Amino acid sequence: MMNRFALVVSLGLLLALSGCGSVPDDQVSQDDVNDPLESFNRAMWALNYDYLDPYIARPISLTYVQYTPTVVRRGVANVLSNLDEPSSMVNNILMGNGAKAVDHFNRFWINSTFGLLGLFDIASEAGITKHDEKSFGDAIGHYGVGKGPYLMIPGYGPYVVREVGDSVDGLYAPLTYLNFWASMGKWALEGMEKRAALVNQEALLESSPDAYLFSRAAYLQRRDFTAEVENTDKVDEAEEDYLDSYLEEGF
């Protein structure tokens, strides 16, 4: 069993790379960038990207994906995703997305009962759309709460202060019943799947003239996208769709 540090890194480095789909630096307005600790953040980026990811997060993630049967991984992923449906339902209600909230509600009760606590995604088979997860940070961002300062946390990855609000999601059942280690396990398993899915996209980051700016721009854009913040700048819709599908890439 991985120790606590490896669990943190497994998901953390996923976040460090997860914004790096194909979004150029200039697609996020510099007026929207709040990076007062850029020198520190760049140093932490180098630590994460040059050492922690290639020597810990990446090999652990690929080992998990390669040696765990696909049917087992899919079942685990379904269960973990099902745990987030109620919080996404509440946050979509707060954001005024009634139809999506209903879908989250129906997915949860159907998969929790007929799908054996979410092990099988019966709801998708029944034609109920699986939407992106919404956090409380997305909900308050939707109503104008700014992202706050950008931070690159060692062994974790990019973070904006608004994400502190995501802790509210843990107050809803069934997430509230998870203890610390169960939450860490969920965090790590989801992170390993997503990190492994990014292997084919690594060249995009490596070819960027400034990987730090590339990552930061895409991450901040992703935060606006999930909060459904209206962007007054002209954005390539094809790029937006690609980034969304890339970040939600499964197996």
From TrEMBL:
Belongs to the MlaA family. One of its GO terms (cellular component) is membrane. Pfam families: MlaA. Keywords: Lipoprotein, Signal. It comes from the Bacteria. Residues 1-21 form the signal peptide. GO terms for biological process: intermembrane phospholipid transfer. This is VacJ family lipoprotein.
